[in-house]
């Protein structure tokens, strides 16, 4: 079973049409997600739970998906969140799905522009695969890889595995 955080439930519906999972988010967001999941007739596949990932992450899951989450927070909070993920997973993986800035910090343009927006509106910014990889390794994850793709909101994932 996987855990998904971030948003009102559309990604969860798409992600778990073929599997099972749990949507974990702030209580008021989890309630919205529960409605979207019910509309999609997937309550038998997707559970919802409310809480703060700054306090806890669900345990006994195979995967933690952090989708469009880490760009909102500074490095210290991101490192703490990844340590919390490592501690909560018995084994498995954490998948960071974001609009990634390349390691040279020269682009791509959408990621650089969003990073500027994050610097203005939040305490975070868009990070590079090298930064995420270092934080994952520091948290204890191994076999770290980056997968680039072309999608409207995110352009890649950084995956770390807990043996």
Poorly predicted regions are: 1-10
Q: Give the overall pLDDT as a whole number.
A: 87
C-alpha Rg, in Å? 15 Å
Number of helices: 5
Helix content: 25-40%
What structural category characterises the helix and strand content? Answer: alpha/beta
Along the chain, the helix and strand elements come as: EHEHEEHEHHEE
Q: What fraction strand?
A: 15-25%
Number of strands: 7
- Based on CA inertia axes, which overall geometry fits? globular
Largest sheet properties: 7 strands, mixed
Topology:
Blueprint: E1 2-5, H1 10-15, E2 21-25, H2 27-39, E3 46-50, E4 63-67, H3 75-88, E5 92-98, H4 109-121, H5 129-139, E6 142-148, E7 156-162
Question: How would you describe what is shown here?
Answer:
- Helix content is 35%, strand content 25%.
- The chain has helices at residues 10-15, 27-39, 75-88, 109-121, 129-139, and strands at 2-5, 21-25, 46-50, 63-67, 92-98, 142-148, 156-162.
- A seven-stranded mixed β-sheet has the order 3-2-1-4-5-7-6, sandwiched between helices.
- Helix 3 (75-88) crosses helix 5.
- The longest helix has 14 residues, at 75-88.
- The model is unreliable at 1-10 (pLDDT under 50).
């Amino acid at each position: 079973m996987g855990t998904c955080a971030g948003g009102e439930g559309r990604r969860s519906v798409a992600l778990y049409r073929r599997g099972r999972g749990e949507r974990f988010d702030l209580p008021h967001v989890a309630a919205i997600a529960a409605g979207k999941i019910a509309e999609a007739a997937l309550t038998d596949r997707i559970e919802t739970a409310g809480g703060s990932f700054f306090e806890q992450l669900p345990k006994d899951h195979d995967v933690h998906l952090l989708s469009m989450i880490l760009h909102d927070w500074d490095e210290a909070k991101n490192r703490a969140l990844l340590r919390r993920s490592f501690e909560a997973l018995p084994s498995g993986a954490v998948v960071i799905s974001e609009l990634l800035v390349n390691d040279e910090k020269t682009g791509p343009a959408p990621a650089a522009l969003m990073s500027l927006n994050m610097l203005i509106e939040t305490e975070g910014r868009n990070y590079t695969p090298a930064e995420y990889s270092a934080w994952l390794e520091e948290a204890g994850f191994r076999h770290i890889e980056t997968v680039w793709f072309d999608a409207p909101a995110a352009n890649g994932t950084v995956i770390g595995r807990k043996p």
